[in-house]
Write a structure and sequence with these properties.
Helix content: 25-40%
Number of strands: 15
Radius of gyration: 20 Å
Order of helices and strands: EEEHEEHEHEHHEHEHEHEHEHEHEHE
Strand content: 15-25%
CATH topology of the largest domain: Quinone Oxidoreductase, Chain A, domain 1
Mean pLDDT: 96
Largest sheet: 7 strands, mixed
Shape: globular
Low-confidence stretches: none
C-alpha cells in the first residue's frame, strides 16, 4: 500500500510499505478516506524531533473500518469513524479520569518514538489502530468528515486551550499564532463567550482569516497596544500560545494581566524555559499546558461541528491527493497554507 514517510530533513515521500495487520485482539484496521497535514508533522519533518527515515507520518484521520479484533466493542467493519491522534487503553487509572495522554500505553500515530512506542502514521491507505474501542468513534449522523477530522487533533487542542484557561463570558483572550490550532482556539473561545479574541500572526492571510471568523487580529508589534486598549490597560484575561517555543511563550506571558492565565498548546521541544518567576509570583500568574484529547472531548465537540456551531473547515486552504503530498508539505512549510486535507 502507499503511505507518506519521512525521507530526511525537510523531505517526505510517498512510498510502498507493508500493509498493516491485526496484531492484538483490541486492534482495528481502518481504510483512511481523509487525512491531513498538521503543524506537528512539520516539526517532525523539519528536524526538530529525532525520527528515523521511513517513519510513516500523519495522525489525523477519518476512514472506514475494514477489520476488527475479537476484543473490539462498539466498532464494526463498514463503520465510518474518527480517529484520535494518539492511543490510550481506556481502562487504566489515567484513562478512567479522562487523562488519556498520560496512559502508559499511549502511542502517537506517525511520530516515531517521540511520544511513546512507535506507531505507523495515518497518511496511509490503511492504518492499524490499537485499543480501537477507545481510540475510534463512529461519526454521528450529519457530521461531515472534513469537519470531524479536526476533532481528532486541532479542534480538540483549541478547545482544550479554552477549557484549561477557564475562558468565561466577557473575557479578553489573546491567541498567539494563526495556524490551524490558533484558529480553532479562537473559534472555541468565541463559542464559550469571550467578549474579544485577538489572534496574533506574522502572516497577513492568517490575520485576515481570523478577522473573517469573528476575531480581532494584530501583528506582534501591534498586539500589546490593542490588548491594553481593550482592557483599560489591564492585559488579557487569558493568553494562549498556539505555536510553541520560548519566544512565543514569553510574548504570551507579557500580555496576561495580573492573576491572568497563560495556556500553552503549542508543541515544545526545548528542555528548559526561563520563567520570570518574580513577576509570576508578584502578579499571581497561572502558567499551564494542555494537549488536545479527542477521546475526552469528542462527545462534546462532534455535535457542535454537526450543528454548524463551530465550522473548523474555514481553515482548509486546499485538498490534495496522496501523490501530491510531498509538494503540499513544501507549501505548508512556506506558510502558504493554513490546513491541507489529503483525499486518500
Amino acid at each position: 500500500m502507499k503511505a507518506v514517510v519521512y525521507a530526511g530533513p525537510g523531505r517526505v515521500s510517498v512510498d510502498d510499505v507493508a500493509e498493516p495487520r491485526l496484531e492484538e485482539p483490541d486492534d482495528a484496521l481502518v481504510r483512511v478516506t481523509l487525512s491531513a497535514i498538521c503543524g506537528t508533522d512539520l516539526h517532525l519533518v523539519s528536524g526538530h524531533v529525532d525520527i528515523e527515515p521511513g517513519t510513516g507520518l500523519g495522525h489525523e484521520f477519518v476512514g472506514e473500518v475494514v477489520a476488527v479484533g475479537s476484543a473490539v466493542r462498539g466498532i464494526r467493519p463498514g463503520d465510518t469513524v474518527l480517529g484520535s491522534d494518539f492511543t490510550a487503553c481506556g481502562g487504566c487509572w489515567w484513562c478512567r479520569r479522562g487523562d488519556h495522554w498520560e496512559c502508559p500505553e499511549r502511542q502517537f500515530f506517525g511520530t516515531g518514538t517521540s511520544f511513546g512506542k512507535a506507531l505507523a502514521g495515518a497518511q496511509a491507505e490503511i492504518v492499524r489502530v490499537p485499543h480501537a474501542s477507545t481510540v475510534l468513534c463512529p461519526l454521528p449522523p450529519g457530521c461531515p468528515a472534513d469537519g470531524a477530522i479536526f476533532v481528532g487533533d486541532a479542534l480538540a487542542t483549541g478547545f482544550a486551550a479554552a477549557e484549561r484557561g477557564r475562558v468565561a463570558p466577557g473575557d479578553t483572550v489573546v491567541v498567539m499564532g494563526g495556524g490551524a490550532v490558533g484558529q480553532m482556539a479562537s473559534l472555541a473561545c468565541q463559542a464559550v463567550g469571550a467578549a474579544a479574541v485577538v489572534v496574533v500572526d506574522l502572516v497577513e492571510g492568517r490575520r485576515a482569516l481570523a478577522a473573517r471568523e469573528g476575531a480581532l487580529s494584530a501583528t506582534p508589534e501591534e498586539v500589546d497596544g490593542l490588548v491594553r486598549r481593550l482592557t483599560a490597560g489591564r492585559g488579557a484575561d487569558v493568553a494562549i500560545d498556539a505555536v510553541g517555543g520560548a519566544r512565543v511563550l514569553e510574548a504570551a506571558l507579557t500580555l496576561a494581566r495580573p492573576r491572568g492565565t497563560v495556556v500553552s498548546v503549542g508543541a515544545h521541544f526545548d528542555s528548559s524555559f526561563a520563567l520570570p518567576v518574580n513577576r509570576a509570583f508578584a502578579e499571581e500568574l497561572t502558567l499551564t499546558f494542555a494537549i488536545g484529547d479527542a477521546m475526552r472531548l469528542r462527545d462534546r465537540l462532534l455535535p457542535l461541528v454537526a450543528a454548524g456551531v463551530i465550522d473548523p473547515t474555514v481553515v482548509v486552504t486546499e485538498r490534495v491527493a496522496l501523490a501530491d503530498v510531498p509538494a503540499a508539505y513544501e507549501r505548508f512549510a512556506r506558510h502558504e497554507a493554513v490546513k491541507i486535507l489529503i483525499d486518500m
